[in-house]
Amino acid sequence: MIVERLADDEEPQYPGRVFEDQSLDYAEAMHAFVAASAQSEQREKRLPADGKEETAKAAIRRLRREEERLRIQRRDARSQRKQEDIAWKTLRQQHRHEEIEFSQQRARYGERKVWHKNWQALRTHRRQVLEQRHQEDQVWREQRHILRTQLAELPIVTDWIAILVITDNCTRQCLGLPLFMAGANVTSEMVVDALRTLLPAELQFLISDRGVHFTANAFKELAHTEEFVHVVIARHRPQSNGIAERFVRTLKEWLAFQSWKNAQELLALLSMFRSEYNDRPHQGLPIPGLSPNEFANRIWLF
To answer: Residue ranges of the domains in the chain?
Structure first.
């Protein structure tokens, strides 16, 4: 899992690349590095409305939270509109039945006039509701367009923080969430070292995707040493590892509403998430309502 992603079609540009120019002497290269660093910091910063500096990372998280808030409001509005439409449909059916009854009976002119006036008032209110919906839709589209425009204008964040997700397909327990500050430079040896300390001794099968970290020789040596079978999922079929994929989705949704300034704070958040996840009820287990930890304690029943 990658918390922040590089652009796939653009080579990263960072201040240290000035040292690739062999024609520069030491002093020139250092001056160029300082200048490039200043420009990089300037690009990554934004000035919000309160006058305080905001990093690009914080701005992206803030805008994404705002986008999620708009999405929730939109979903709630649609649910309410659905109920209103059902109520209006019921009123129309009731109106048709009453109209048939009036046509079959000799109702007095005054009663029919009051009935017709009430119906006209309901129709007028319905038109007003539909017009208000149209205006709300326009406002929602404008707000969504503004958010997407702001997100598009932000610089691409080039820092990677990689998280290795380790889950048990049987109990649904999260066994660990090791953090890799190396990001794009994470090696298979790093992954192997993390797995060696977190994998249970009774492990028989390990399922993973076809990432280079899991197909390297170091990983094959781990499988041989720890005596487990490495199961690689089919190409372009992430659903083959659906339990892990669903866990990643849950983790991403949870992290979208969190904020952190450094790796230590992120690590503390991941520890808190793991504890909450393993202790809360899980409907995907053979005994619905048990938490992964509770199910693991009762696994002997099966």
So the answer is: 15-54, 64-153, 162-301
